[in-house]
Specification:
Number of helices: 9
Order of helices and strands: EHEHEEHHHHHHH
CATH architecture of the largest domain: Up-down Bundle
CATH topology of the largest domain: Glutathione S-transferase Yfyf (Class Pi), Chain A, domain 2
Bound molecules: glutathione
Strand content: 5-15%
Largest sheet: 4 strands, mixed
Distance between the termini: 29 Å
Strand order of the largest sheet: 2-1-3-4
Helix content: 55-70%
Structural class: alpha+beta
Length: about 220
């Protein structure tokens, strides 16, 4: 059975979990915590050499990088979430790259300083956090405009790009991003967060954070 290694607080990990859920593929989710040094052993580094989560183990085939994992899974299971048509696929790739680079970069800066720093008892870097909020403001405008023009981020059908985006905006509720500033994105996210593929991960990002905080 497919194994996914990671932590429920990690949005790249949740991309992969949501993707597998949406395709209806059974998998084992193995909780592994980088904050506790659990990704630095030889066995894990064989799957993910940088010690980052997620890692996939598909019967001895190892893969890291959430977007690469999702594409592999779609190809393996012949899913339309990663369309075969080259133009449709190019749109999905464009958004995966945009979200994976720009939005993730902004979120990572804010998330580390606002959430992770407190968990590992290091001082937050206010300048880095402000920079992250600046990136999010700039790049969420692009997402918001697209979701005003099309029902899903890469067009009129749900794709991997939606799964990637949903897991990426999921922590926004706990980093004080006001979703009312992004009404198209808010409506799109509310609809997808009611779907079983999301609910199988959690009811909300805050639910997972509260569980981690409780011990
Ligand atoms: N581009 C990677 C990002 C993975 C990543 O940054 N994971 C974080 C958790 S959100 C991590 O493993 N952090 C622990 C570390 O850097 O040691 C992906 O999409 O899979």
């Amino acid at each position: 059975m497919i194994k996914v290694y990671g932590l429920g607080l990690s949005f790249p990990v949740n991309r992969v979990r949501m993707c597998l859920n949406a395709m209806g593929i059974d998998y084992e989710f193995i909780v592994i915590n980088p904050l506790a040094g659990e990704t630095q052993n030889e066995e894990y580094l064989k799957m993910s050499p940088s010690g980052k989560i997620p890692a996939l183990d598909d019967d001895g085939f190892y893969l890291f990088e959430s977007n690469a994992i999702m594409k592999y899974l779609c190809r393996k299971y012949n899913s339309d979430f990663y369309p075969a048509d080259i133009v449709e696929q190019a749109h999905v790739d464009k958004w995966l790259d945009f979200i994976g680079a720009h939005l993730t970069n902004g979120l990572a800066k804010v998330f580390f300083n606002k959430v992770v720093a407190g968990l590992i008892d290091v001082e937050a870097d206010e300048k880095s956090m402000e920079e992250g909020y600046g990136y999010l403001k700039r790049f969420m405008r692009v997402i918001e405009d697209q979701l005003g023009a099309t029902a899903y981020i890469a067009g009129d059908k749900m794709t991997l790009a939606d799964i990637c985006l949903l897991a990426t905006v999921d922590p926004f509720e706990i980093i004080d991003i006001n979703m009312s500033d992004y009404p198209n994105t808010k409506a799109w996210a509310s609809k997808l967060m009611n779907e079983p593929f999301y609910k199988k991960v959690h009811n909300s990002y805050k639910e997972t954070l509260d569980t981690v905080m409780a011990g």
